[in-house]
Specification:
mainly alpha, Methane Monooxygenase Hydroxylase, Chain G, domain 1, 4 helices
Amino acid sequence: MGNAAVPANYVPILVFIGIAIAFGAVSLLAGWVVRPSRPYRAKLAPYESGSPLFQDARVQFPMRYYIIAMLFVIFDIEIVFMFPWAVAFQKLGLVGLVEMVVFIGILIVGFWYAWKKGALEWD
């Protein structure tokens, strides 16, 4: 680290954070100053299209919807782990292949468990 004090090493980071905050604040302020503000009745309605509401917007979704959404996110994120593996496949060799087979096996077991618990019934 040398003779420099540790807090002095963080000065560029703090300057960068300050510039980012200032840029965001100036952008919001410039938009507030420049944009026109001409509210009227139809514009202040919940939907700017002017169509009247025909039912309450708060609808209860079945729990299965949230479970399927979570499973989608989980199985979608697995690609984030598979892509670097595929890029470095030849360097990893047999060990990398075995690790990926174990990873996919864990995902399949989780998918099977969700299927058996009834979370993935396709009615």
